[in-house]
Each structure stands twice: as C-alpha cells, then as structure tokens.
Write a structure and sequence with these properties.
Blueprint: E1 27-32, H1 47-53, E2 62-64, E3 70-72, E4 75-80, E5 86-91, H2 105-116, E6 131-138, E7 141-146, H3 153-156, E8 183-189, E9 193-198, E10 211-216, H4 220-228, E11 234-236, H5 244-248, E12 253-268, H6 278-286, H7 290-298, E13 303-304, H8 327-336, E14 343-349, H9 353-368, E15 371-377, H10 380-389, E16 395-400, H11 421-431, H12 436-452, E17 457-469, E18 472-473, E19 490-491
Parallel strand pairs: 1-10, 1-11, 14-15, 14-16
Antiparallel strand pairs: 2-3, 4-5, 5-7, 6-7, 8-9, 9-10, 11-17, 12-16, 12-17, 13-17, 18-19
Helix pairs in contact: 6-8, 7-9, 11-12
Length: about 500
C-alpha cells in the first residue's frame, strides 16, 4: 500500500529559503511531505517513490492520465486473444533508457518476471499473480500469458509497481534510478531534495521543463512558510488545509482541490485479540465520528466513506450507515464481546497530518466507549518495519492511495490480516469478468462484504490538496494514482 507520509524536521522550516527561482520558465521546485526511503518503485510500499518518479522517470506498458484514464505507455498497441488469456504488446520504436541502452522486449520480460518471482519484494505482487509466462517474441513484441482472463490487466500494468526496468541497471536502482521517462534522475541530497533534468532523448513529446527539484518539507508550519515566501513553486499534497483559504485569497497562488484514490482508514489487526472478534471491530466502527475527524484533522476536506472504495468511482456504494457514529451501541457490542470494561490497545501513527491529527481525535472517541488507545508516533521506516511488515500493532491510521485497490482484502498476509475465503473467491470472479455491468455488481458485493465484516474503520477519502504559484499550468488536480506528473507542466507566458 502507498500513502502520504512525511519526515523532515521542523528545524528545516527556514532552510528552504532562497533555493528556487525558476529560470526563464524552464525549471520548477515542487515540495512534498515525504522523502522516499529509496528510489525503486518496484520493491517498496512507499508511495513517496511514485510521487517523485511515476511517469517522470519510470514508465510502464500502460499509464494513468490525470483524469484516471488508462492509455498506452511504452506499449503503443496490443492485441488480446479470443479467450482473453494472451496479451501481445507492440512496443514503441526508438525508446532508450537514460543510460543510453535500448529498451526492448527482453526488458519487459525481465521486469514482469522479476515482479512475479517467488522472492520478489514488489509491494503489489498480486498485480502479476495471474501471469504464467512472459515471452519476448522479437525486439519490439512481448507476449504475456495469463492463467485466466483478467479484466483489470491493462489497468494493473499502469501501476507504478509495474514500470519497466533494465537488468543492466537494477543493482543500483534504489540510489540511481534509470528509466525511460521524460526526465532523468541527476541528484539526491538525502534529507533535502531530489533533482531531475529533461531527457533530451525522450521518445515522446518533450516536456517544457528543463529541470525539476523535489524538496521534502514535512512540518505543516514549515510548509506554509515555504509556500508563502514563494521558496517553492508547488506544494503537492499540502499538509495544512487550515491555510488554504489564505492562499485562495492571494492572487500569487492557485489552490487545487481534487480527489484521490486514498481511502483513509483506521487499520485494524484482524488476527490480534480482541480485534479477531467481529463484535469488537463493529464496536470500534460505531465509536468513530467520521465527520468530526474530517472537520478536526482536515478542516472539512475529505469525503466520509463506509468501505474501501473511492466515492468518485461509479461503482461506489455508500455504506456509511453500516457504521454510523453510535457510542452507546459501541458499548453494548463491547459488552456482548466480553469487554464491558473496555480494553487497551496500541495506535501507531505515521507522520502525515491526517494520521497525527486524526489519531488524537480517534483516541479521544475510543476512550469514550472504554477503549484506551496508546498512541505511538512512528516515522515512515519504522511504520513499514513494525506495522506493514511486522504486523505488530493493534490499530494504525493510513491512507491507501493505489487506484481501486479493494483486492488487497483478498490477501490474508496483508498487514491487517483479513482472511475470508468468500471474499477471495469474489475477487477471483471479478478478475475473470469483463462485462461492465457484471463487474459493477461484483464490486458492490465486495464493498458490502468488507463493510459487513468491519475489517477496518473506514474514515474518509483523502482530498488532493495542492498549492501552486499562479503561473504554473498542467498540474494534475485529481490524483488517480500517487504521482506528481510533470511531463505536461509548464509556466504560463
């Protein structure tokens, strides 16, 4: 899973001054909350990697556009066999990696086989689970064979976890990423910035920008200071929503408010007592006042959700009524479960504002029904180690920003450890279904199933909040995947 988190210290609030002055409209400085732990999007769960590198440095066979559409990427076209199990991709001609080597079918074969290998560390291995064979037919033709039809396959290939990498550069990819994108990686000053420069050998339309600098500023106060002083040109995923009205009233800036794929949830360890009891999980859900969290942590930005699905998706089912705020009912359910006096648990909070601010509100709400949640603030690397990989937690708050990722509930080894064979079977059926109406019905069933099982506390859909100087154009307003796509960004004349 991927999420918006951050870790630069407050002490850096004033250190950002003076580093950005866009030269003749050809460079840009973009601030983000989170610094990537490393730079290989195919071997980590950190969405911060995609925030910098998706589309800019790395590309896949297909790609997401700002409106969520899936379009051709490194594959210029494809054919699908009559049984839906064989995809034959025709690759674009003249594509080179940033080190000058040619991108060919063998690189696609290497990338997909590496992602689906038994020892793969790809955070979204499930995207590749149905692949039974990848064959480089010739330099520009790749044949991918699936074990069964998968209506999501082209969509899956657009994820940042499915970008194409080369065997020649894979050893150092975490420090020196080499892709095929419109920008080349040039420098990483850890704890400070990542710099990209325009790829003059790019196969596609050349970007207007010559250089791009990503600065990492985690603290909301520092973020406000950097934007107000015009030390950064864009702050993507602005962490202090309370300041947005001030920027909206200032003609120097534009405020972009859109939607994301980020289901913000109170993730629950379904195998850790007492959360292995559905009555306890249901009680937890009814103890939470979603709107109070949206108002208190996000200053009203965010859409309450009752399941793990984006409200802007046509297949969304509003299930917020299943877990309406009802503290008295929560107490009754706890008593039925044998916890009339409540219990103690842990609440691990990663750095982003929605988690830290929201966590304080949720802890107070849980205390009202007798659940004492001990807050532990953790940095991103610690969260990955303790929660995501170690599964050593009771509760945590995180925003899952991958597109239409309800399929994670079919993986019993995923960090919240929900193991429901009926749901797994439902996802298998969904993947094999191509009829749009039938898919919509199955997605509705899936939403209702996890809502009825109270797998997690479903809070709100994260809004895409960005602030930019008035002259910046071409930024994504919505975030169909976690990315800061600069390939179409320019300065107004």
């Amino acid at each position: 899973m991927k999420h918006f988190v951050s870790r630069l210290a407050l002490a850096s609030a004033m250190s950002v001054a003076g580093f950005s002055a866009h030269a003749a409209g050809t460079d840009i400085t973009v601030a983000l909350q989170l610094e990537p732990p490393h730079l290989d999007p195919t071997s980590a769960a950190a969405g911060a990697i995609d925030s910098v590198l998706y589309s800019n440095v790395f590309e896949g066979l297909t790609r997401f556009m700002g409106d969520g559409a899936v379009v051709a990427g490194l594959a210029e076209s494809w054919e699908i066999s009559a049984d839906g199990c064989i995809y034959t991709f025709k690759l674009r001609d003249g594509v080179t990696f940033h080190d000058g080597t040619t991108m060919e079918a063998t690189d696609v074969e290497f990338s997909l086989n590496r992602a689906r290998a038994e020892d793969s560390t790809n955070a979204q291995k499930g995207l590749f689970a149905g692949i039974t064979a990848v064959e480089a037919v010739d330099a520009r033709t790749v044949k991918v064979t699936l074990d069964k039809p998968n209506g999501n396959f082209l969509f899956n290939m657009a994820w940042g976890d499915a970008v194409i990498v080369a065997p020649e550069s894979i050893e150092n990819i975490k420090q020196t990423p080499i892709g095929t994108g419109a920008f080349k990686f040039t420098n990483w000053v850890q704890g400070d910035k990542i710099e990209l420069t325009r790829n003059d050998a790019y196969w596609g339309t050349a970007p207007a920008l010559e250089t791009a600098t990503f600065k990492f500023i985690s603290d909301p106060t520092a973020a406000f200071a950097a934007v107000m002083a015009e030390d950064v040109d864009v702050f993507s995923g602005f962490p202090a929503p309370e300041n947005l009205p001030q920027f909206e009233a200032d003609p120097r800036f534009q405020v972009l408010v859109g939607s994301t794929e980020g289901e913000t949830i109170l993730s629950t360890n379904n195998k850790m007592p007492p959360f292995d009891n559905v009555l306890v999980r249901e009680a937890l859900a009814h103890a939470i006042d979603r709107q109070a969290i949206v108002d208190g942590a996000m200053f009203g930005y965010g859409t309450p959700i009752g399941t793990h699905f984006a409200p802007h998706n046509p297949a969304y089912v509003d299930l917020t009524g299943d877990s309406a705020y009802d503290p008295e009912k929560a107490k009754e359910l706890l008593a039925q479960a044998g916890f009339a006096d409540g219990f103690e648990t842990t609440l691990h909070l990663p750095p982003p504002s929605y988690a830290r601010r929201g966590g304080e509100i949720i802890a107070a709400q849980l205390a009202e029904v007798g659940i004492k949640a001990e807050i532990t603030n953790v940095e991103w690397a610690q969260w990955l180690e303790t929660v995501f990989r170690g599964k050593n937690f009771g509760l945590t708050i995180v925003s899952h920003t991958e597109p239409m990722d309800i399929n994670i509930y079919a993986n019993p080894d995923y960090y919240f450890q929900y193991d429901n064979p009926a749901f797994q079977e439902l996802m298998t059926k969904l993947n094999a279904t191509t009829d749009p109406d039938a898919r919509t019905a199955l997605m509705g069933d899936a939403q209702r199933m996890i809502s009825g099982d109270y797998v997690n506390g479903y809070l709100f859909q994260l809004a895409a909040l960005s602030v930019a100087k008035a002259g910046v154009q071409g930024l994504w307003t919505n975030a169909p995947t976690q990315a800061t796509d600069l390939t179409g960004v320019s300065w107004a004349d």
